[in-house]
Amino acid sequence: LVNTFAAYGKAVGQRVKGAIEAAGAGAIGTMVRSVTSLNDNTPHTGVMYYQDSIPKIPSVALGIQDAEFLSRLIDDGEEIVVNLDLSCQNHEKALSYNIIGEIRGSEFPEEIIVVGGHFDAWDKGQGAHDDGAGCMQAIEVLSIIKQLNLQPKRTIRCVLFTDEEQWQAGAKAYAARSDSLKENHIAAIESDRGVLTPRGFNVTADSTVIDRMQKWLPILRRTGIDWIREGGSGPDIRRIKDAHALIGYVPDNQRYFDYHHSANDTFDQVHAREMELGTAAMTILTWLVSEEGIE
Amino acid sequence: LVNTFAAYGKAVGQRVKGAIEAAGAGAIGTMVRSVTSLNDNTPHTGVMYYQDSIPKIPSVALGIQDAEFLSRLIDDGEEIVVNLDLSCQNHEKALSYNIIGEIRGSEFPEEIIVVGGHFDAWDKGQGAHDDGAGCMQAIEVLSIIKQLNLQPKRTIRCVLFTDEEQWQAGAKAYAARSDSLKENHIAAIESDRGVLTPRGFNVTADSTVIDRMQKWLPILRRTGIDWIREGGSGPDIRRIKDAHALIGYVPDNQRYFDYHHSANDTFDQVHAREMELGTAAMTILTWLVSEEGIE
Q: Does A193 contact chain B (CB < 8 Å)?
């Protein structure tokens, strides 16, 4: 599959459900070949589930080269004995917070545009592409508007959601509080697919809204955006059900799973120019929604 | 400028003509801040010219950090003395060759599709993005068709041009010989913009030909190609004047000048997946032209 997110989606069940399936078949532990696009020896990790009715066996992700090495030994008829020495554990839940800042709209302050990312990261690496740099892009949208001394007609709100990786508790809490306040979101934009070179925006909205947004393409093309497509958005904003448009920023995906959820996801792997162009694309789109509305 | 090729084009005159301009104003040497997109200290080099009527003074490109350091000293009012110790020299011209291989067409063997790159490189680095990997993509187009046991209707010819960097002697010799043989090129495709993630194809052709090619976009999109645009092609194939379509493969350009003509242009900076997708795009386009013609 050319789209690495589609490939990941189809393959990752081996890790997510591996322990359940293996234990059900009598295994005492599982080792899964990392679900990654990079042929190195850095384990790629992420969420995995147990089921209460089935033994909770140890489960690990191996680097590609270690996994291939073991495969070769098995192919050669070797008998392999592996000792698993794991230090991972489940901690109690702890209090955490969404981080929110906004520029109030001058004409329609009750009409809110959310721009955000998630502030937590998987434990390996620094969480640069997933999703520290995405959060910085969201902050920069407001920062650029402020630096340019622009006063938006609608409220532009930056939300850095907590706990996307495990339970999406931050997204759920934001949506619940927003519902109770009867807030009116006209759009929400999320950057959570890395900060590689800009390609497009995924949009969940009525087709009339998408048609309208596509008229903005000539402006967005200046930042490298080539398309606006129906479908998808972001893992946090998708819970903001009242928003007229849920919008996911989509950079190129070929390198994303070289970094994602591994020790490779470090800030030196962020290309400043590519990140800045994505920020520019998000800022322009946010401004257009703010000034022109979306319906 | 967002497009780094456009930015390079506007800035590079400072290096190309710097020695002429400076010597004309009485300078005894020139140092130019590297024309690059990467803020490191690796000099970015390339062609520079003298003019016979003006003294031929020494001319060097400095890494960005060295250039900035010298600028700060000047701003601080320091008097700077620089010793230039250069070992560069002009060698005599030497015999070199284009490298050519082809699969003869089964129905219209006299109709030729060239797919190529240039086999020389600037002296710094390994010439990976410029243009070793581009040459490999051109070879792979033929290799993939052969591996798939496909027999093209038209002749598909791989040409690796020599001496693109200095005089384009390979391109000129190919065009002259082709003219003398009265060969009929229906299309030529060149990869000489690095092997980063695929974006589109630049095409110099009649608008009817471009309209026809754009109908192939749904197939090419599978490899990441988002557009086919009028204008431009490649520095070698542009001399094949009889070709009905001159086509430049266009990958993303944000990282290209991080590598180009510097010690950074090494094969470890080639992303295999991105390169392979470009090869797939070029192969599909070549095959479509071969089987369907282009007019």
A: no
pLDDT tens per residue, range A162-208: 999 999 999 999 999 999 999 999 999 999 999 999 999 999 999 99
Which 196-235 residues of chain A touch chain B by CB within 8 A? 197, 199, 222-224, 226-227
Contact list in A for residue B273 (CB cut-off 8 A) is 37, 254-255
Q: How far is A277 from chain B (nearest CA, A)?
A: 8
Rounded to 5 degrees, φ, ψ at A273 are -60, -45
User: Catalytic site residues of A?
Assistant: 164
Q: Residue B221, SS3?
A: helix
Tell me the whole-structure pTM to 2 decimals: 0.95
Q: Which helix (H) or strand (E) holds A14?
A: helix A13-16
Alpha-carbon separation of residue B128 from B120, B137, B179 (angstroms): 10, 12, 31
Give tens-digit pLDDT for B34-54. Answer: 999 999 999 999 999 999 999
Please list, in sequence order, all residues whose beta carbon lies within 8 angstroms of the beta carbon of residue A75, skipping any fewer than 6 positions away: none
Residue tagged active-site, from B111, B140, B164, B274: B164
Interface predicted TM-score (ipTM) of this complex, two decimals? 0.94
Of B285, B91, A20, the closest CA to residue A32 belongs to A20
